[in-house]
Amino acid sequence: MGNLARLRHFPLARWGRAGVFRLLVGKEGWPLQFRAPETHDHLMRLASPHIYVHLPFCQSLCPHCPYNKRRYQAELASQYGQALLREIRAFLELHPDFRWETLYFGGGTPSLTPDIIEQVIALLAPHASPAPEIGVEVHPLHGTHAALARLHSLGVTHISLGVETFHAPSLRLLARGYTPRQAEQAIDQALRQGFACVDVNLIYAIPGQPPAASIADAAKVATMGVDQISAYPLFGFEHTPLASIMARKGLKPVSDRERLRAQKGIARTCLERGWQRASVWSYIRPGVRPYTTVTRESYLGFGAGAGSLVHGHQWFNTFSIPAYIAQGERKPALVLTMPPRLRRFHWVYWRIYETRLSYRAYRQRFGREFKKDFGLLAFLMKGLGWAREEDETLILTERGAVWAHRVQAFYSLAGIDHLWRAGMAEPWPDRVVLM
User: 3-class SS at 263?
Assistant: First the structure.
């Protein structure tokens, strides 16, 4: 069996995406179109208690990473930090009574610029709700006692270590710059600090990585006593250089069969230990609040390329770091305003991602009955064995989790690939159409 994720790049995939969209959502809203806003004052007045901050700098650039990033330069990072604080201050001036509950730093490599993390936390601290949640993505080479102790002292509660794998050849292919032993030491140091949640990020289905090695990665991490495992297949994005590197090395993408073996093995490893699914990608020990960023019902993004979602409006800042630093006011680069049904479906999509969709929560949020709006979706998912219904809740099965991976790779990642590629190519695009 070939690599099904690659099918999303074929022209016929557009017809499939359009057909599914119209079946479940309707004609209104397709194709999805992000546009440069004519006015944006109304967007700047929107708020959410969940904040994402993008810190794009990396010591070196991993060839598989699709995110908005830049090789670290001290002067540029300093200028970026000042622009970031300026953007947050502009927001706070419009929202003097603002209160936030969660704050997450993503990248890039956030742990590379701890001074910016400290400045942002200090700026937002007066607006924190009781017992706020603060999360930071940490590179294993930054998982030292001193660096992690500093984050803990700043009030950081959740960290995600980008270990990716303990398979040494795969680490070299992904240009991660550390050894398996160094990754183990970073995990050990993180567990000693007393964070509320230590998440370890793993990647499987890396070319040349046997499924058994991926399963062994999950077993090793679980045995070490971490709180959460987030396991993702290696995605192939068109705007990353990994494909050309693989071609030079004579490596082929992992087949869907091998990908599935690794995915099922990782799930079995976690679930047999009594862990619970936090999402189609992640597993947590019982009683732990999961590390999660933009899967929330709403969020505000600050920084170059950061996305926001509030009241059916989704927007992105300019991806260009120089343009972000130079902009004289806080403003989005691209905006999508969702029609009502698309807004509801977007909420449904992320609840399925979390593996549990409460009909009561849908009724409370939208004042409508889920079965009336999306009864066909529930019927199809149950009929295919992807979900079961229990106490007014649609619960994803393990079979459903497998297909959620495939559906996301075929549909959602195609949009992400196109949007991010366009955003990185031009600081202020007029329009980006996702089909």
Answer: helix
Query: Taking the chain, what is the end-to-end CA distance rounded to the nearest angstrom?
Result: 26
Domains of the chain, by residue range, sit at 6-35+339-430, 41-284
Q: Which residues contact 26 (CB under 8 A, 6 or more apart)?
A: 341
> Is the domain covering 41-284 a CATH 3.20.20.70 domain?
yes
Q: Provide the pairing of β-strand 228-233 with 197-204.
A: parallel
CATH, domain 6-35+339-430, list 3.30.1370, 1.10.510, 1.10.12, 1.10.10: 1.10.10
* Count of helix runs (H) and strand runs (E) in the chain: 16, 19
Q: Are the C-beta atoms of 159 and 138 separated by less than 8 Å?
A: yes
Decide: 173 and 136 in contact? Cβ < 8 Å: no
Residue 320 and residue 416: Cα distance in Å, rounded?
Answer: 17
- Strand, coil or helix: what is 427? coil
Per-residue pLDDT of the chain (435 residues; tens, 9 = 90+): 345 556 666 667 778 788 888 988 998 888 899 999 998 999 999 999 999 999 999 999 999 888 899 999 999 999 999 999 999 999 999 999 999 999 999 999 999 999 999 999 999 999 999 999 999 999 999 999 999 999 999 999 999 999 999 999 999 999 999 999 999 999 999 999 999 999 999 999 999 999 999 999 999 999 999 999 999 999 877 678 887 888 888 888 888 889 999 999 999 999 999 999 999 999 999 999 888 876 788 999 999 999 999 999 999 999 999 999 999 899 999 999 999 999 999 999 999 999 999 999 999 999 999 999 999 999 999 999 999 999 999 999 999 998 888 777 777 777 788 888 899 999 999 999 987
Residue 62 near residue 175 (C-beta atoms within 8 A): yes
3-state secondary structure of 113: coil
Rounded distance between C-alpha atoms, residue 107 and residue 70, angstroms: 10
Residue 251 · residue 302 · CB < 8 Å: no
What are the two backbone dihedrals, phi and then psi, of residue 71, each rounded to the nearest 5 degrees? -65, 140
> pTM score, two decimals?
0.95
Main-chain dihedrals φ then ψ at residue 311, nearest 5 degrees: 50, 45
Plot region of 164 (φ>0 → left; ψ -120 to 50 → alpha; else → beta): left
* Cβ atoms of 100 and 155 closer than 8 Å: no
- Distance between CA atoms of 158 and 103, rounded to whole angstroms? 10
